[in-house]
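Ticket closed. Logging final result for Thymidine kinase.
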Amino acid sequence: MAKLYFHYSTMNAGKSTLLLQAAYNYQERGMQTFILTAHLDDRAGAARVASRIGIAQEAQTFAEGEDLFAKLAAVQEAAAPACIFVDEAQFLSTEQVWQLARVVDDLGVPVMCYGLRVDFRGQLFPGSAALLALADEMREVRTICHCGKKATMVVRKDAEGRVITDGAQVQIGGNESYVSLCRRHWREAVGDGGTG
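Final structure:
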């Protein structure tokens, strides 16, 4: 039975690595897959999912306002993928998450989404909020804070390494811009009365 999956975490937890591994498992068994990633994130190159450990694969992109049900219905008719993978799922709109749910329900194709849960302000991304509400199965991908505890938050830093506490929700970046922290150290970093 097809399901909508949401694998979520903070930055640098290995979400893209897990996506690429899962897609490879299907492909190794001769099954077709279809990989989508956000059009606005081209750090690994346009239309490409890449991991920090060096593995990568070509992908198709989704853009803001695009009808993903229509796009994936056409893909299903032409190629009949055994599974659809979505990287950077936090950039989906609520409507697009509902469209992915329709792909699962109406086309019978599993959809595995991978993305961030919260932004640098500790707020849910719209796509993540919708996936938390609609996904049939969810899995937290864990990474660690510098203290060794589970990291669940992320801070954004400027070019001088200072923590930024306001600004646009979306700013594409990697290790040069973001650091994953446990909640306690995130609170300390943003000046929210951390408990030393």
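Helices lie at 15-28, 68-79, 94-107, 126-134, 183-189. No further action required.
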